[in-house]
Amino acid sequence: MPHLTVHLPEDRLAGKEPLLIAALTDAIVDVYGDWARDHVSIRLSGVPAGRFAQGGKAVDTIASVVLGVRAGVFDRPDAARITARLGTALTDAITRVTGDDLRAGTMVEFVASPPERTFIGGVPTA
Questions:
Q1: CA 56 – CA 59 distance, rounded (Å)
Q2: CB 67 within 8 A of CB 109
Q3: Which end of the chain has fewer surrounding CB within 10 Å, N or C?
Q4: Which residues pair with 118 in a beta bridge?
């Protein structure tokens, strides 16, 4: 069950939430397959101006994606290919909706959880 938390400059996000949600969901589905569509969980967070910084200076050209995945994805023989596809697809989705000038500053981070450490509705996921 892919869980995404996306931080973007607020002025880049405002009013584009539905488009971005659709683009991010489609990016996950393009890699995992259509079975994943109903399982994609997205949290969008707008960052006020002046609260993203690079090199000690405030910037508005950074996006951060934290993608929670099952730890087993890294044990697959095609793990490097899958993670590369996800990183590219998510970056492409963000820049398609918010502007290509965010591409160089978009970071996608994978956070792995074993099944026994993921709960939905208070119940461990299988």
A1: 9
A2: yes
A3: C
A4: none
User: Residue 107 corresponds to which tokens in the numbers above?
Assistant: 């970071």
The residue written with tokens 């969980």 in the block is 41
Do 63 and 7 touch, CB atoms closer than 8 A?
yes
- Summarised one tens digit per residue, pLDDT across range 49-92 is 999 888 999 988 999 999 998 888 899 999 999 999 999 999 99
Q: In what helix (H) or strand (E) does residue 83 lie, and over which residues does it extend? A: helix 79-98
Query: Could you read off the pLDDT of 82-120 as tens digits, one per residue?
Result: 999 999 999 999 999 999 999 999 999 999 988 778 777
Other CB atoms within 10 A of residue 15 CB: 8
Task: List the one residue out of 77, 121, 110 whose CA is nearest residue 2.
Answer: 110
Q: What is the DSSP letter of 19?
A: H
Structure tokens at 106: 């978009």
- Asked if residue 32 lies in contact with residue 69, where contact means CB atoms within 8 angstroms, the answer is no
Compute the distance between CA of residue 44 and CA of residue 30 in angstroms, rounded to an integer: 20
24: DSSP letter: H
- What are the structure tokens assigned to 51, written together? 């609260």
